[in-house]
């Protein structure tokens, strides 16, 4: 047992760290750090820099641009990106669509889509949730009916994150309405420019356009866009959701947020000093830091185990990481709002000049929106209550 | 990074677990051991000596086995799992670390053979009536007299003092009561004139004592390290104690969680196992999360307890104690709640895990104490 990084791992960490800080534009990293929205161009630019280095999709198979990294290296890489406030590679392309296609897709599909997905030449979005299918995803109703060489798709998807930028959507559709609910589902790739596809924005509570509704009205999809076998889509989705969960602890993100809160606390006047002199506030920060340290070690234990285990099976510990990781991400956003204090109320128009900055602080207006928006992290990717069910059944055998 | 134990460590784990499982087949056995005059069985102590675990942390040159924090963690986890009452923490970990890090060659040659073969037990006397968990708060005095010292003062809740042959006592040779400088660690034989030990049972099945020192004369060879600059040594001893407690807590919580899950599967109400109710399932999951987070911190303690930077080490170990304390409380309370009435009974082993876990919170620093230390260190993450 040696819980330190090896010299090779330290060298790797330093290489990722310096690359992130020297190659990814500071303006993009600043927006991430302040919790302000990124444009499509920001995300594409950042990902292409990573991809040129071979670091956009390190967990993919080598022939499609992956690296033969150990799970510990992959962990270090993700954490360093997060701590440097580098946008993670577009998650639908890189952590969902890519791994599914590389594992279950045909050679022709891989050849057609994977390299473009890695470079963000195609923007993929996820068509899973429906108005009546959230945590109970398998109750989805969007239908795909075979008609010669095509499927005809009718239905509605919702919570489609960044669907407004998307060229393609990977969808779960019902292909056998007679089968038991998980059995009749297929995994279909749909061109967003197809006739009959309509995208309508949903503004989330902080006012940002992040998610969408996507409507399918007799959309014709070539049969060649079916991934794997018809009616096996649920298996592919489970594989994908397990992938989604592993990265979801976002420890580096919370670390970066805490470090920033500490810096800002030293500049926020309070009483005769600053908020950094307030023992109550600092105690609340410390409690988050301590729990985060424990989660960091837990995450490394999971990563070390992944090195040996059958990696196509999700580790039940990933549910633990999701639960605690999301709680800590949220706790950090709450601390930032508390730090902003009375200034948290202010929501001025940006760009009108420095005069209307609340209290002269250039960050306080983004604190509450970030808090509002982060309520999502205990809901998406399988709500924390669903994760409790997963552990109760899968680990405790209850 | 590698979380696997080595082959030797695996063998150690197997043999310690087997020995303790054999020694503690039931709660009745444990109660019988607690009822013995010293609060544990001499035979059980001898079997630990036979296993070699009493000499585990000492260098091979001193007759030990050259083990490190991971080996201690393995032993303490097994102790926690079985609720063993032998004074391993007091003697081997706290007293042993004081000797290992503080004793000179003569002292090691004189004392370690007895510590390793089990014939000499140790106890650490650091707490005073007013000190709470502050190691620098020492009113007990060590007055220079000839080559040696004369000790006067009161020490409180000294773990297993009544079975120790030698006490490691913090006492002030200079400075004011809370001055970090001027503190020394002194070796005081249990039969020294002027030393009085008033023992009592603890809430968790252990033993402790009030120790009073009245004109206790010790020689120059009784000083561990520097008589005026002993606080860093005492701090390191306590850090090792916290790392050990973290492992013990993990062992106990693991056992208690397993008991609870088993109970949820077998206890039937309304015609179904109560574990089929989601409200109870989610609480059992929260127990598991707390346990796994504590396990990570016990590993972190093992990694950090020998770290060279004192400030970094102190913040790390304090953060471990905070997290483990919180887990002890949550896992203990939830276990009793999920068991219902049976969890409240003296005859149920789970209740004894609950009591031990509750008391671990108040050994070597409670949550507010260690949280304050983490805050004072500026936290764990660089701004």
UniProtKB/TrEMBL annotation, chain A:
Residue stretches making up the Acyl-CoA dehydrogenase/oxidase N-terminal domain: 6-119
Gene Ontology CC annotation, any one: plasma membrane
Gene3D superfamilies in the record: Acyl-CoA dehydrogenase/oxidase, N-terminal domain, Butyryl-CoA Dehydrogenase, subunit A, domain 2, Butyryl-CoA Dehydrogenase, subunit A, domain 3
Keyword match Oxidoreductase: yes
Domain of life: Bacteria
InterPro entries on file: Acyl-CoA_Oxase/DH_mid-dom, Acyl-CoA_Oxase/DH_mid-dom_sf, AcylCo_DH-like_C, AcylCo_DH/oxidase_C, AcylCoA_DH/ox_N, AcylCoA_DH/ox_N_sf, AcylCoA_DH/oxidase_NM_dom_sf, Mycobact_Acyl-CoA_DH
Keywords: FAD, Flavoprotein, Oxidoreductase
Required cofactor names: FAD
EC annotation from Swiss-Prot or TrEMBL: 1.3.99.-
GO MF entries: flavin adenine dinucleotide binding; oxidoreductase activity, acting on the CH-CH group of donors
Residue span, Acyl-CoA oxidase/dehydrogenase middle domain: 125-219
Segments forming domain Acyl-CoA dehydrogenase/oxidase C-terminal: 231-395
The protein's enzyme class: oxidoreductase
Family: Belongs to the acyl-CoA dehydrogenase family.
Protein name: Acyl-CoA dehydrogenase FadE17
From TrEMBL, chain B:
Keywords: FAD, Flavoprotein, Oxidoreductase
Domain Acyl-CoA dehydrogenase/oxidase N-terminal: 6-118
Cofactor(s) needed: FAD
Domain Acyl-CoA oxidase/dehydrogenase middle per the UniProt entry, residue ranges: 123-210
A molecular-function term among this protein's GO annotations: flavin adenine dinucleotide binding
Pfam families found in the cross-reference section: Acyl-CoA_dh_1, Acyl-CoA_dh_M, Acyl-CoA_dh_N
Domain of life of the organism encoding this protein: Bacteria
EC number: 1.3.99.-
Residue intervals of the Acyl-CoA dehydrogenase/oxidase C-terminal domain: 229-358
Secretion signal, residue range per the UniProt entry: none
Uppermost EC category: oxidoreductase
Similarity comment: Belongs to the acyl-CoA dehydrogenase family.
The protein's name in its UniProt record: Acyl-CoA dehydrogenase fadE12
Organism: Methylobacterium dankookense
